[in-house]
Automatic annotation (TrEMBL):
GO terms for molecular function: sigma factor antagonist activity. Keywords: Cell membrane, Membrane, Transmembrane, Transmembrane helix. It is found in: Cell membrane; Membrane. GO terms for cellular component: plasma membrane. InterPro entries: Anti-sigma-K/W_factor, Anti_sigma_zinc_sf, RskA_C. The chain crosses the membrane at residues 119-139. This is Regulator of SigK. The lineage of its organism: Bacteria, Bacillati, Cyanobacteriota, Cyanophyceae, Synechococcales. It is a single-pass membrane protein. Residues 117-256 form the Anti-sigma K factor RskA C-terminal domain. One of its GO terms (biological process) is regulation of translation.
């Protein structure tokens, strides 16, 4: 019998899924968890949003401590491994003494090894510092690009397709890019049979820098309508909505409730951008 999965393990699996870092065994385990509990997709969406919101900090200069810290660490390390002037200048009273020569033959290579290790460590410290600076510069470039994106509300009124189950079905999504939340307003969609769910998808352009399925889509919300065919709720949306140029379409499909992420069905309603 398989041991129950703890909340901490579920959080790790969600993080691994968002980072595309799950092993085949972990992926299979996570897929089973999603089949058993489709509500986990809400946690996946929140994790995806949190990951990309990491890069939404305000622009600022490199930390003032970065360069002094690197130089100080390198200096301390050099002082710890390089012999002092006194040790370098001092010479034995009788350098021809065989015992002293034997001692020197052991000490000198050790000091050279220490110097080599010190130099390598100093290079490593400098390299880490450069990596941090490059990372900071990349972040500033990203922020500069995002300043050109819109923060105005985005309104999507999905159009019916030949697969729309009722002629008067209505799906409206109003997205607030500033807080990555949206109002999903559904009307006149028929309640589904047991084992089926409606799924809202965000379709992005090919090669967009986000995690998608093989249809370039992000599962955004799984929902069911009430007896009157209605559903209205505030939902979390993917960070791609901060850049209108990345979003290609918003669509609704009918999927298997045990595995909505497989995205097997064609859209019943869609708005292409």
């Amino acid at each position: 019998m398989t041991a129950p999965v703890t909340p901490d393990q579920i959080e790790l699996l969600i993080a691994g899924y968002v980072l595309c870092d799950l092993s085949p065994e972990e992926a299979a385990e996570f897929e089973q968890l999603l089949r058993d509990n489709p509500d986990l997709w809400d946690a996946v969406a929140e994790a995806q949003a949190a990951l990309e919101q990491t890069f939404s900090v305000e622009e600022q200069a490199p930390p003032a401590y970065l360069k002094p810290s690197i130089l100080s660490a390198a200096q301390v390390l050099q002082q710890a491994v390089i012999p002092s002037d006194r040790e370098t200048i001092a010479s034995p009273a009788n350098p021809d003494n065989p015992a002293i020569q034997a001692a020197n033959s052991n000490v000198i290579p050790l000091r050279r090894w220490q110097r080599g290790m010190g130099a390598a460590a100093a290079v490593l410290i400098a390299g880490l510092g450069i990596s941090n600076i490059v990372l900071w510069q990349s972040l500033q470039t990203l922020q500069a690009a995002r300043r050109t994106t819109t923060t105005d509300p985005l309104v999507f009124t999905l159009e019916r397709t030949p697969l729309t189950p009722t002629p008067n079905a209505s799906v409206r999504v109003m997205v607030d890019p500033s807080d990555l939340e949206a109002t999903l307003d559904i009307k006149n969609l028929p309640p589904l049979a047991e084992g089926e769910v409606y799924v809202l998808w965000t379709v992005v352009k090919p090669n967009a820098p986000v995690t998608t399925d093989d249809k370039d889509a992000i599962l955004t919300q799984v929902f069911r309508v009430d007896e009157q065919g209605q559903f209205s709720q505030r939902i979390a949306v993917p960070p791609v909505f901060r850049d209108r140029g990345l979003v290609q379409a918003v669509a609704v499909t009918i999927e298997d409730a045990k595995a909505p992420q497989k995205h097997l069905a064609k859209p019943i309603l869609i708005q292409r951008i």
